[in-house]
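Protocol step 4 of 5: obtain the predicted structure for the target chain.
Materials: sequence only (see below). No template structures provided, no constraints applied. The aim of this step is simply to have a reference model before the mutagenesis design in step 5. Sequence pasted as it appears in the construct record:
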Amino acid sequence: MTYTAGIDVGSTYTKAVILSDDDKIVGRGLVKTGFKLNEAGERALAVALSRANVAQSDLTYIASTGYGRFQTSIRNVNVTDLTATARGSRFLYPNTLTILDVGGQTMKASRLDGAGKVKSFRLNDKCAAGTGAFLEKTARYMGFNTEEIGPLAATSKTIVPISGVCAVFAESEVINCLSQGSAPADIMQGAIASLVDRSVQLMKRVQMEPEFTLVGGILRFETMAKVAQEKLGMKVNVPQGDLVQYVAALGAALLAQHRLRRLNEQGAQAEGEKELA
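Step 4 output (structure tokens):
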């Protein structure tokens, strides 16, 4: 049995996936990134290896992705997060054509061609109002932490419109809504709806077409996927549980596996040529 690993060094969290040569995820690890990007990759990989009961010496190839991919010294190769996410999404949902990836600091929409390669993409990383940070800030203004966003929104009875034009100005908007007696759950639902509106606009810019696959840490909140599905008017794919956070790391591990097989084939071919000579 041989193993490959994918490490996704994100702005908020770093994820690692250990993949066996029969395409099975045998271990996953997630840690907060912090400011030491190389160490974050090593820590996430250590967690994944421990859960997989695999030694690091058993890894035959490691691919890194994410904004900190160049800082991961233990990598054999690095790939862009768009490419890694496309590969991971297609592995989970083979008919995926449009991907929305909502993380803590960025939002990305991409459209794939029939072969699963990225055909077009758009990013929204200039303002926190278009990222998961907008939801986190809104929750913090009301005295809730990030992990309470999902349960809080799930109790909402109606949507309180939040413009979401700017995350900085959202604080005064939230305070105003609270002073008018709006429930925190309804305000949170309004913030989610605002983020989804921005998401759909980004997807339209890549000329979206189904199937849609939604990934990224913010999609672990079920309400986000539910509102997105309502806005799009059709079913969306969302990886179950915390797997939604590991799609890019999974894609990197798959690409590492593909690269390893290519190298082995080239080596076998070269060896064969030597024997013929």
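Step 4 remarks: Residues 247-276 form the longest helix (30 residues). Residues 270-277 have pLDDT under 50 and may be disordered.
Proceed to step 5.
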